[in-house]
Amino acid sequence: MSGGFVVVVAVLIFVVVTLAKGVRILPQGEEWIVERLGKYNGTLKPGLNIIIPYLDRIAYKLVTKDIILDVQEQEVITRDNAVIVTNAIAFIKVTDPVKAVYGVTDFAEAIRNLIMTTLRSIVGEMELDEALSSRDKIKARLRESIADEAVDWGLTVKSVEIQDIKPSESMQRAMEMQAAAERERKAAVTKAEGEKQAAILEAEARLESAKRDASAQVMLAEASAEAIRRVAAAVGEQPGPMMYLLGEKYIAAMERMGSADSAKVVVLPADLQETVRGLLARGRAAA
Length: 287
Description:
Layout: H1 3-22, E1 23-26, E2 30-36, E3 39-44, E4 47-50, E5 56-63, E6 67-77, E7 83-94, H2 97-102, H3 107-124, H4 128-133, H5 135-152, E8 155-167, H6 169-235, H7 240-259, H8 272-286
Antiparallel strand pairs: 1-4, 2-3, 2-5, 6-7, 7-8
Helix pairs in contact: 3-5, 7-8
């Protein structure tokens, strides 16, 4: 192999390498940062780009499409000292590649930490119930709080979504015990209210029954008085009818006493027959 051939091959290799280093074709959705002698020189856009080999170098390759950042789960203490667990997911976009690579060491990690600290701050200002029921409010405040910082890093925060926000396991156990105690308390109150209403209704029933009994007795007494008055008016000065009625009542009363189930022994007056006979005789005589 001659020396000239070696030189030609070397030159060809140098040319190929130089072209390979000088020509850059970027895909859509990426931008590359070029440094010349260690200093920022330019940003390559998607498509064909030419750089100066050996002087320029591709320092950073950035994706300009939306980036999904998963913010890991963390424990947060609310204003009323309750511990909740929350995590989030953020959608960001690199809008200024220069700021993104020179403004912060790792923009993805930086925005992730910023979201975590901001989330702790926002939830820490809320009570437990408010934090658990204000997902949209937390999301809006979170996005608003990190927007300015993100701009300084050449980023645009398109959205931040709260994936989970829930009490910690210890808090869940405490809340379950509290809920069980509250249910038992309500059950006891409901039972007491039921017993109270039942007692009131029972007393009202007794009162109404007593009123009706008293009214019936009054009516019965009035009826008896009226009956006596009418009988007295009908009999006038003759005692015969009166004695007849008394005898009839007397016999009927004795029949009821004799027919009662509890009447084991019925004591009759010794002069029962004479008494009834006398009453009947007086009645017939009077009639």
